[in-house]
Amino acid sequence: MYTVRRAYSRTDVDTELLINRALLLQQSTGLKDAHTFLTRKRIKAATIKRVLACPGDRRGL
User: Fold this and answer.
1) What is the pLDDT, as a whole number, of residue 49?
2) What angle do CA 48, 54, 60 make, to 5 degrees?
C-alpha cells in the first residue's frame, strides 16, 4: 500500500478541518467571525493567532 506524504501535514484531522473552515469564513465574512468560530471550537489562542494573522502565507497551501 502506498501512503501519501505531505509536507507540514496535520496529525489532527479535526483541527485541520476547523482551520480550513475558519479560513473560508475569514475570506467571506471577516476576521472577527473566524476568530469567534475557532474560539468556540476550543482551538488554542496561539494557533488562532498564527493561522488568522497571515492567511495567504499558509504552510499547507
Assistant:
1) 93
2) 85
Angstrom distances, CA of residue 23 to CA of 28, 36, 49: 9, 12, 12
Q: pLDDT digit string (tens) for 26-36? A: 999 999 999 99
Q: Please provide the size of the chain in residues.
A: 61
Question: If we measure between CA atoms, which residue out of 6, 7, 23 comes closest to residue 15?
Answer: 23
Taking alpha carbons only, the member of 13, 48, 14 closest to residue 31 is 48
40: pLDDT strictly greater than 70: yes
CA 57 to chain centroid, in Å, comes to 12
Question: Which of 16, 40, 17, 36 lies closest to 26, judged by CA?
Answer: 36
Query: Any idea what the Cα angle at residue 36 is, between residues 28 and 27, rounded to 5°?
Result: 15
